[in-house]
Write a structure and sequence with these properties.
Length: about 210
């Protein structure tokens, strides 16, 4: 539990740091502590992959306005970060320790991200694939002006929905360098809570309090 608290504090600190530059950032979907960015040079006598002189943590996050999803490599050497708006026309290709993606703008070079740990690469790749799949199924969600998503906040402690969410998060538990919460894992956590008599009694009490209020 102590380690879980440390991870939650780390995520909160990361989100706060990112929001200092972009207040519209709403939620970090996944991150990895360190990647090296490459760009594919195709218009030179010796074409090939070249380092972009961008190294540092990579974040994929959701925003409350367009663009809804972005990929950011925060450069530890300078303010020259790699920031790309995610788009349904992205082309993704992944290999061991590498994520390659071609953005929708043909004037921009193909990107490559190197991960020290291939398990982290797989987690980040999975989030990218899920976002792109959703964008391709519902392109209007990614390209049209969306209904603004309210900022993350902590509801009042007597909110039954908040109780449910916080207990579900606790039931998920665990931590990793690339944090991913899937729908299946969340469903499993909620089912486990439904079998917990103490939790069900507490939730019913909260609902009664809301009705009386």
């Amino acid at each position: 539990m102590a380690q879980k608290g440390i991870e939650e504090a780390r995520l909160a600190s990361m989100l706060q740091s990112l929001q200092a530059n972009d207040p519209m950032i709403d939620h970090i979907l996944v991150y990895s502590k360190f990647v090296v960015a490459y760009l594919l040079q195709q218009d030179q006598p010796n074409p090939g992959w070249r380092k972009a002189n961008i190294e540092g943590p990579v974040y994929i996050y959701r925003r409350r306005a367009q663009p809804l999803f972005q990929l950011l490599v925060k450069n530890q050497f300078s303010t020259n970060d790699l920031l790309d708006d995610m788009h349904p026309q992205w082309e993704l290709d992944c290999q061991n320790n590498y994520v390659f993606y071609k953005v929708e703008d043909p004037s921009k070079r193909i990107r490559g991200l190197w991960f020290h740990d291939d398990a982290e690469r797989q987690r980040v790749e999975g989030i990218i694939q899920n976002i792109l799949k959703d964008m391709q199924v519902q392109p209007s969600r990614s390209l049209a002006d969306p209904t603004p998503v309210p900022p993350q906040s902590f509801p009042p402690q007597n909110d039954a929905k908040f109780e449910l969410a916080t207990h579900a998060a606790a039931a998920l538990g665990g931590h990793s360098d690339a944090l991913v919460v899937s729908r299946d894992s969340l469903r499993g956590a909620l089912r486990a809570l439904a079998d917990d008599d103490t939790f069900v009694a507490m939730l019913m009490q909260k609902l009664r309090e809301r009705q009386r209020g």
